[in-house]
Every structure is written in structure tokens, then in C-alpha cells.
């Protein structure tokens, strides 16, 4: 439990945003599947990514880490060996689902478990297509929930039209497809984050991308001797971008923030709501573009957030909802049913926690409606073990009239272990 006594202070200064969680996971996973040495700079030492490291160590991969530098000594798919222990993915849906794709093609038995939140997150979206490829997967409720047991073996390619825009589903199938006979294609209703495609290419995999369709041939190997520089996580930066926009008189610079277009929906929404953003030190020549972003406090107006932008900002919806409480007018967020299957049901947890502070917010079946602009009171908030709900609460406390308490604040370590240190440095 943490007392948040930050109210009525402006934010000023610059911070180095920690490494992108999605890219950090993939750097360790793909480095482990590749032949040779992969070095990773600005790796995110959050609990989720440490779970990924621990799983691959149990599969026999040598991995060295000091703070944010990681070296992976991969020996190809053949270097991955059966673990005598259960593989624990902790709180990480990305680890669980991508590993299911990788393990399905490996000739040994594995068992995946996670924490209480993982046990409630649906895995059938991955189990289903992987079984169609020939994978032998068992688990609670016919393979929908952990513990998941996988007897890896021969796989055939698949042509899969995914009903959801999900990078985890797409990646799991592509990683199984790499080990399958024939070609594998994944088609999505809208484009989800494409870090897997970008990084597989950097590891020498031939992959065809045509809009929302991605195709690769099975039997390709990954070649290493790669140095991966992980940009700052835009999903972590989002909390301070919004804080800078809503806390009066603030000016905040966030350094080296990833600008992959499949992740930048938050920047489009900030701009449409009237926030002032400037970009400096733009780097566009690597596999993942990034820049420094400066935000200054701005008067904001309501927007509608729906359709193809949703997968490009899905993890930022909690903080967008808080921002909408400070915008003039009615903000509508729709087409975001996927929020229900995150670390918590984020429609319910966002609405419940913001209501406790006096926000005028209503849950809908696929999102929420927020009336602004509203003064927020203090209160006792709970992260419910969801890092993004915890950080939303901490940023809300900056504009709350009374004291705010955050229960289960340690959940934030999943993606942003130095969040409070950064917040306090910006508050001077
Ligand atoms: O890894 P996990 O627990 O699923 O983390 C979350 C998050 O908020 O950090 C979702 F709860 O991010 C997902 C994201 O929502 C990370 C991710 C990825 O790295 O591929 C993709 C998104 O999930 P999905 O289901 O849309 O593919």
C-alpha cells in the first residue's frame, strides 16, 4: 500500500523511459531460438521480462544480465531442451502465449503456469490454431487456461484468419509456423503491433507482409550476432505524457520513446484532444524508430476512440480514460472488448477506480463513456494486481483534491520498476 501525496505539484524535467516490454520479451525469445550471440541494450528489467528470461534458462539457454544489458547465447531450436521444472510465466500473457507457439514445435514436454491473473486469461485463442497445426496441448477447460501442458512435435503450416487483432495470437502462430512444414499465413481484422515481424527480419527470417496479412515459410532458422537496442516503451511513456498534459503548468520530456506506428495511437489521441507535443532527436534508420517527446500542459477536448486505432493503443486505454475526465465534453471509447481479457477486466477496473475519485464514467459492453471535465477527489484505489491500473491511479492522484492511497502498488514492477522514482524526479 502506498500513500500518494503528490497533489497540486507540477511536473517538470526529463526522464529516460525504460525499455519496451514487448520488444524486450522478443529479444530474449528470438535470441534463444537463434544460433549465436545476441546482445540487448536497454532491456526492460520488469518482472514480466524476467519471467521470460527464467523460462528460457530452464530450457537450457545461457543468458547473462546486468541491469539493462542482456546477452543471450542461442544454439538454435536444437539448443532448447526439456525442462525438469515447470515454466512459470508469472503475470505475463506475452510470455505464456508466445512460448506456447515456440514449445509446440519442440520435441519434448513442457508445462506452463502463471499467477492468479494468468490463470483467468483465455489461451484458447492460441491453443485452437496451434492444435490445427498439429500441436498437442492440454490445459484447464480444454486448453483454455493454465496450467498448460504441451507435448511438442511435428507441425504443419496454417492459413489462419484471426477473429481478433492480437499480436500475441499472431506471434504464437508465426513462431510455430517457423518450425512447421509448408507456409503459414496469419490474417488479422486490424493490424496489431508488429515487433515480431520486424525482429524476425533482423534475425534473417524471410517474412512477407501485406497490410494485415503476414506470411512465412517453415524450416527457416534465425541467425544471431545481433545487437538489439530496445527503445523506450511508449506504453510506459503514456502515463507521463498524460500527466504532463493534465497537470497544470507542467513540461515533461520523455527520452528515446519507441514510435513504431503500430503502437502510436496514444500520440494521435493526445494530439486530437489538443495536447501540445514536440518531437526531437528522431531516429528512423533502425528496425524500431524512436524520438524524444516533450509535452506541455494543455486544455483538452473530448474525442471518440474506436475502430482500427484500438489495437494501436489498447494498453493505453486506462490512462486515456483518466485524461478524458479532464477534457471538455463526452469521450466515447468503443470496439475495445479486448480490455476484458487483460491482467484484469480493464473496462471494470478503470471504471470502478475512476468512479471512486468522482469521475463521471460509465462502462459499456465494448468500452466506456466519460463526461468531462470533472474535479477528482481523493480516495483509496486498488491496482487489483494490474500494473496499468496502478499507474493510472498514481497519475490520477496528481490532480486529486484529497489524499489518495494505492493498494497493491507493487504490481507496477511488472512493466515499470522505477515508476515512482521517475514520478518523484519530475515533481522535483
Ligand atoms: O503480456 P501481457 O500481460 O498480455 O501485457 C499487456 C500489458 O498491458 O502490458 C496486456 F495486458 O500487453 C500486451 C498487449 O495488450 C502485450 C502484447 C505483446 O507484447 O505482444 C500485445 C498486446 O496483447 P494482445 O492480446 O492484443 O496481443
The termini sit apart by 23 Å
User: How many domains is the backbone divided into?
Assistant: 2
Oligomerization state of this entry? single chain
- How many β-strand stretches? 24
* CATH topology title of the largest domain: UDP-n-acetylglucosamine1-carboxyvinyl-transferase, Chain
Give the radius of gyration: 21 Å
CATH superfamily of the largest domain: Enolpyruvate transferase domain
> Number of DSSP helices?
13
CATH architecture classification of the largest domain: Alpha-beta prism
The assigned structural class equals alpha/beta
Low-confidence stretches: none
The description of the largest β-sheet is: 5 strands, mixed
The portion of residues forming beta strands comes to 25-35%
* Ligand roster: ligand SPQ
State mean pLDDT (0 to 100 scale).
97
Amino acid at each position: 500500500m502506498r500513500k500518494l501525496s503528490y497533489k497540486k505539484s507540477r511536473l517538470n524535467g526529463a526522464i529516460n523511459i525504460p525499455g519496451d516490454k514487448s520488444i524486450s520479451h522478443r529479444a530474449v525469445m528470438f535470441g534463444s531460438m537463434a544460433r549465436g550471440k545476441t546482445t540487448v541494450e536497454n532491456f526492460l528489467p520488469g518482472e514480466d521480462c524476467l519471467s521470460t528470461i527464467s523460462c528460457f534458462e530452464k530450457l537450457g539457454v545461457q543468458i547473462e544480465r546486468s541491469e539493462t544489458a542482456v546477452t543471450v547465447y542461442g544454439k538454435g531450436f536444437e539448443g532448447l531442451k526439456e525442462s525438469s521444472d515447470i515454466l512459470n510465466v508469472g503475470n505475463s500473457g506475452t510470455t505464456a502465449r508466445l512460448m506456447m507457439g515456440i514449445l509446440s514445435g519442440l520435441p519434448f514436454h513442457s508445462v506452463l503456469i502463471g499467477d492468479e491473473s494468468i490463470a483467468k486469461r483465455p489461451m484458447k485463442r492460441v491453443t485452437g490454431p496451434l492444435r490445427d497445426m498439429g500441436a498437442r496441448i492440454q490445459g484447464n477447460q480444454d486448453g483454455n487456461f493454465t496450467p498448460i501442458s504441451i507435448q511438442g512435435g511435428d507441425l504443419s503450416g496454417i492459413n489462419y484468419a484471426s477473429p481478433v487483432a492480437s499480436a500475441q495470437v499472431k506471434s504464437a502462430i508465426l513462431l510455430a509456423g517457423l518450425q512447421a512444414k509448408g507456409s503459414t499465413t496469419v490474417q488479422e481484422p486490424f493490424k496489431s503491433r508488429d515487433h515480431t515481424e520486424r525482429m524476425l527480419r533482423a534475425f534473417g527470417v524471410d517474412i512477407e507482409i501485406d497490410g494485415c496479412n503476414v506470411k512465412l515459410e517453415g524450416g527457416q532458422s534465425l541467425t544471431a550476432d545481433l545487437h538489439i537496442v530496445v527503445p523506450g516503451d511508449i506504453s510506459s511513456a503514456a502515463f507521463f505524457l498524460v500527466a504532463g498534459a493534465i497537470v497544470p503548468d507542467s513540461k515533461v520530456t520523455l527520452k528515446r520513446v519507441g514510435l513504431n506506428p503500430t503502437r502510436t495511437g496514444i500520440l494521435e489521441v493526445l494530439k486530437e484532444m489538443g495536447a501540445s507535443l514536440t518531437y526531437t532527436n528522431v531516429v528512423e534508420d533502425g528496425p524500431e524508430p524512436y524520438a524524444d517527446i516533450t509535452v506541455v500542459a494543455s486544455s483538452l477536448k473530448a474525442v471518440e476512440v474506436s475502430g482500427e486505432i484500438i489495437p494501436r493503443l489498447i494498453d493505453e486505454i486506462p490512462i486515456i480514460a483518466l485524461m478524458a475526465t479532464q477534457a471538455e465534453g463526452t469521450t466515447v471509447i468503443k470496439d475495445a472488448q479486448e480490455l476484458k481479457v487483460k491482467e484484469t477486466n480493464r473496462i471494470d477496473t478503470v471504471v470502478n477506480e475512476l468512479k471512486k475519485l468522482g469521475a463521471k464514467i460509465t462502462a459499456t459492453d465494448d468500452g466506456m463513456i466519460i463526461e468531462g471535465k470533472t474535479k477528482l477527489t481523493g480516495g483509496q484505489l486498488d491496482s487489483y494486481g494490474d500494473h496499468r491500473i496502478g499507474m493510472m491511479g498514481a497519475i490520477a492522484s496528481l490532480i486529486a483534491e484529497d489524499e489518495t492511497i494505492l493498494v497493491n502498488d507493487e504490481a507496477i514492477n511488472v512493466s515499470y520498476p522505477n515508476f515512482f522514482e521517475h514520478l518523484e524526479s519530475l515533481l522535483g
